[in-house]
């Protein structure tokens, strides 16, 4: 076998689809299928069970997948060690950011990464936390910041900081610059909300907290996009419950009024997530250090709160339920 065949097989097995793997690898699907078939012939085993929904590893495929991940990781480590001989870390790191943090962190993260790892390549993907959670498991992302991560044996979860959810409204004309008055969560239930659709983790956190008070949200519109929600709120079509970071990084924050929510406060946890099955390369570990330092500088990271065991999440001030999938 050669490394290309092994990489192709691992990617198909992780993504569960020849089509998705071909897209991720940037190769034609027939060429991908041909390489994997050659690998199966050489090893004298069927490695993938092909069906109408995709492809899943056979028993032999599971064995090769476990070895293949380790082999590819060691190859990447070897490349990095050779880069170290030249005096620098090299390689590619793919990092995922949720939309509410991407505007705030993408530019300073790129600058800090280039300073710390000038010979490495950075890829930043913006997406919903639930999608990025899956992409970390599939190997498409090396690191990701996600909201309210659930417990998982497939992921390394390192809490970084607790955010704050606030009520966002259109700013009335002539409103004074005095600090906005807090609003009890129970009073939020009566307001028309523009909110992401389920299973968005922040929405689920809001609904759970309201249910504990005997209320449910008055949803007038479901939108899965932070920028679109803020535009609609600025036009006076409803209110929103979003993180303060999302509002601060928007293009027209002066068009909005942000009010703290109390009784109780809503504090979603943001964590740095990586795969529990693929130990990070030295370049990826250095990139994680860059993210930690940046979050500490910009957002106030939680020092000493980390537990990097697979799936471990220390208790937050207002933790989400374990069944809540991450999102946005």
Automatic annotation (TrEMBL):
Q: Which GO MF terms does the UniProt record name?
A: DNA binding; DNA-binding transcription factor activity
The record's section on Gene3D superfamilies has: 3.40.190.290, Winged helix-like DNA-binding domain superfamily/Winged helix DNA-binding domain
Q: Where is the composition biased (Low complexity)?
A: 319-328
HTH lysR-type domain location is: 1-58
Which keywords describe this protein according to UniProt?
Activator, DNA-binding, Transcription, Transcription regulation
Q: Example GO biological process term? A: regulation of DNA-templated transcription initiation
Q: Which SUPFAM superfamilies does the UniProt entry name for this protein? A: Periplasmic binding protein-like II, Winged helix' DNA-binding domain
Q: Which domain of life is it from?
A: Bacteria
Give positions of region: Disordered: 304-328
Q: Which Pfam families match?
A: HTH_1, LysR_substrate
Family from the record: Belongs to the LysR transcriptional regulatory family.
- PANTHER family registered for this protein in UniProt: NITROGEN ASSIMILATION REGULATORY PROTEIN NAC, TRANSCRIPTIONAL REGULATORY PROTEIN NAC-RELATED
Q: What is this protein called?
A: LysR family transcriptional regulator
What species was this sequence derived from?
Tepidimonas fonticaldi
Q: What is the lineage of its organism?
A: Bacteria, Pseudomonadati, Pseudomonadota, Betaproteobacteria, Burkholderiales
């Amino acid at each position: 076998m050669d490394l290309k065949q092994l990489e192709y097989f691992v990617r198909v097995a992780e993504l569960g689809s020849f089509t998705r793997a071909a897209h991720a690898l940037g190769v034609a699907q027939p060429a991908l299928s041909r390489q994997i078939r050659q690998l199966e012939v050489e090893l004298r085993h069927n490695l993938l069970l092909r069906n109408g929904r995709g492809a899943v590893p056979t028993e032999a495929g599971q064995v090769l997948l476990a070895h293949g991940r380790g082999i590819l990781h060691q190859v990447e480590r070897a490349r990095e060690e050779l880069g170290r001989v030249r005096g620098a870390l090299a390689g590619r790191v793919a990092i995922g950011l949720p939309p509410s943090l991407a505007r705030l962190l993408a530019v300073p993260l790129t600058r800090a990464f280039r300073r710390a790892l000038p010979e490495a390549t950075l890829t930043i993907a913006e997406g919903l936390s639930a999608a990025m959670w899956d992409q970390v498991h599939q190997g498409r992302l090396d690191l990701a910041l996600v909201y309210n991560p659930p417990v998982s044996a497939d992921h390394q979860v390192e809490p970084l900081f607790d955010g704050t959810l606030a009520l966002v409204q259109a700013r009335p004309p002539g409103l004074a610059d005095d600090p906005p008055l807090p609003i009890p969560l129970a009073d939020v239930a009566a307001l028309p909300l523009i909110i992401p659709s389920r299973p968005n983790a922040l929405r689920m956190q809001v609904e759970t907290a309201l249910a504990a008070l005997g209320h449910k949200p008055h949803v007038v519109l479901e939108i899965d996009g932070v920028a679109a929600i803020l535009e609609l709120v600025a036009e006076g079509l409803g209110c929103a419950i979003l993180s303060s970071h999302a509002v601060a990084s928007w293009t027209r924050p002066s068009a909005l009024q942000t009010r703290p929510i109390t009784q109780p406060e809503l504090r979603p946890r943001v964590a740095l997530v990586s795969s529990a099955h693929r130990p990070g390369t030295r370049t990826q570990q250095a990139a994680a250090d860059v993210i930690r330092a940046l979050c500490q500088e910009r957002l106030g990271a939680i020092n000493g709160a980390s537990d990097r065991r697979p799936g471990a999440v220390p208790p937050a001030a207002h933790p989400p339920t374990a069944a809540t999938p991450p999102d946005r």
